[in-house]
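It is worth pausing here to work through a concrete case rather than discussing structure prediction in the abstract. The textbook approach is simple: state the sequence, then state the predicted structure, then interpret. We follow exactly that order.
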Amino acid sequence: MKKALSLLIVLSLMLGYSAALAEGMGVQPLNVPDADMEPVSLDDLKLNTEADIDGWGILTLTGMETVDGLGFYRSGRSDVYSSDDYYWSGAEAEYVVLYADILNTTLTAKKYTENITVKAVFDDKYEYNGWFHQRNYNNGTYSWANLEADKKRQNTRWAINASDYFSIDPMYLGHYIFGCTLPNAVIESKKPLRLIISIDGIEITYHIRK
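Step two, the predicted structure:
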């Protein structure tokens, strides 16, 4: 009993010393989240809210917009080949575009583009198949583009070619686009509309309209 008590005292002293040493070196001990902290729901993920998925990564939806054109880099190129390089939605449809970042929290390089499906659900009965792209912030930009918002920002807004998709190293960010081509009637409606994204079996829902 005395041995057990002595051991507990020694362990307590060691833990206290370690914490003091860490604070002295500018290192803050990890905080344990409050038990009543509201959990992140992947069924209704909000913009700029981190979804920390254990053993996989931290997903953040960074923006959403409706556009009629999505710029792209040509295969094997990291610069803007032509300011006219756009996928166009056509007169009868628009693109719903959702931008996302994924921080790789695993211990190895991971390619997040290998197991993805995207779909839009309108009014709880119409389903449209979507698409996805990767972005490369290291790519070059150009001072002119067909869409004003893209000027000098192609690297953060344009899609790279599927042949150039790359793995993300541990604790680095990957940048992605999830989207769907939707008829004008769906875009202009007030009825519910959501995007459902599945990555490696993890399902994320973003409500555009409820």
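Step three, interpretation. Residues 1-38 have pLDDT under 50 and may be disordered. The two ends are 62 Å apart (CA to CA).
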